[in-house]
Amino acid sequence: MSVFVVRTVAALRAAVAGWKREGLRVAVVPTMGALHEGHLSLVRIALERADRVVVTLFVNPTQFNNTDDLAAYPRTEPEDLAKLQPTGAHLLYAPDVAEMYPAGFSTKVSVGTVSEGLCGVFRPGHFDGVATVVVKLFLQVGADIACFGEKDFQQLNVVRRLASDFDVPVEIVGCPTVREPDGLALSSRNVRLTQEGRRIAPALAKVLFETAKRLASGAPVAQSLDEARAAVVAAGYSSVEYLELRGDDALEPLAGLEKPARLLAAAWLDGIRLIDNVRVQDPELTL
Ligand SMILES: Nc1ncnc2c1ncn2[C@@H]1O[C@H](COP(=O)(O)OP(=O)(O)OP(=O)(O)O)[C@@H](O)[C@H]1O
Ligand SMILES: CC(C)(CO)[C@@H](O)C(=O)[O-]
Ligand code: BAL
């Protein structure tokens, strides 16, 4: 069966209503396109947990705090559709900007606390844009479950918070980060790296995993984080926006390993902002 493409809320709702009448369980996988194996892994997890899978493709302008980043964001719908065909996904919902934000649109959803700090500091307004579009997608699709990647760990936490706060009847499923063999987390922005940048890029994951192991074996936190930031720059990144230790549940700042923790970082390479994170107590990767 081929993936059916819809571009309007009305067509989307008609398709989902038909499935619901048959008692089928529906999953949604929100994306901004330029699909890679990370996205496809979310689709596979969705297919394991639901009877019908809707993939959404919308490059959401309201979450880009940087107009150059929005302009440079890859748009590859025909290739995305070709990649989705063999997965068994059922529907691609690809609205245009006017369908999502018609004239007069003026509501904004803002999730407190968990949106603050980390990416929230460096991408002002970003999580308001994400929360607003994700609420819209939840209400438009009406899915039973929604899959989000741990690669965007703060976003996953923002989405969990808003689904809970707004009593959205959707189960949020966090899915593991898919990596290149050298450890680099797959990201749509990786295609913009130069050859030299691509060689340097895995250093971020490598430093995070090494630091996680050192912390887990008792190394001092503040010093280890300072050394980690320096190591990312020494590897060739132009700067580190943040590299922090946070609680694994609520992303609260942690001074030590008194509870499950996560290391999260954002750093710049080739004018591209890359993010990554690892669990501290049981980092799953050996590089
Ligand atoms: N490497 C990955 N492993 C698992 N999930 C991922 C990965 N990369 C992205 N995702 C998830 O796919 C969904 C859509 O993300 P998005 O379309 O922004 O892709 P992206 O690769 O994160 O792009 P970018 O980071 O350049 O914005 C999000 O839930 C995101 O967490
Ligand atoms: C969740 C999302 C699709 C909202 O635009 C986006 O932030 C993304 O691709 O991670
Ligand atoms: N991957 C999260 C979407 C963004 O970077 O804007």
Helices and strands, in order, run as EHEHEHHEHHHEHEHHHEEE
User: What compounds sit in this structure?
Assistant: adenosine-5'-triphosphate, pantoate, beta-alanine
| Major sheet details | 6 strands, parallel
The share of residues in helices is 25-40%
- Which stretches are low in confidence, meaning pLDDT under 50 for 5 or more residues running? none
In short:
The chain is an alpha/beta fold and 287 residues long.
Fill in the keyword field for this structure.
287 residues, Rossmann fold, binds beta-alanine, 11 helices, 39% helix, binds pantoate, Pantoate--beta-alanine Ligase, Chain: A,domain 2, alpha/beta, 9 strands, six-stranded parallel beta sheet, binds adenosine-5'-triphosphate
Structure description:
- The protein is of the alpha/beta class.
- The chain folds into two domains: 4-175, Rossmann fold; 188-279, Pantoate--beta-alanine Ligase, Chain: A,domain 2, CATH 3.30.1300.
- The chain is 39% helix and 19% strand.
- The chain has helices spanning 9-21, 37-49, 67-72, 77-84, 97-100, 119-122, 126-141, 153-165, 195-200, 203-216, 221-234; strands at 4-6, 26-31, 52-57, 91-93, 145-149, 171-175, 239-247, 261-269, 272-279.
- The strands form two sheets. Strands 1-4-3-2-5-6 form a six-stranded parallel β-sheet, with helices on both faces. It has a three-stranded antiparallel β-sheet with strand order 7-8-9, covered by helices on one side.
- Strand 5, helix 8 and strand 6 (171-175) form a beta-alpha-beta unit.
- Helix 7 (126-141) crosses helix 8 and helix 10 (203-216) runs antiparallel to helix 11 (221-234).
- It is globular, with a radius of gyration of 19 Å.
- The mean pLDDT is 96.
- Bound molecules: adenosine-5'-triphosphate, pantoate and beta-alanine (BAL).
- Residues 63, 152, 155 line the site of beta-alanine (BAL).
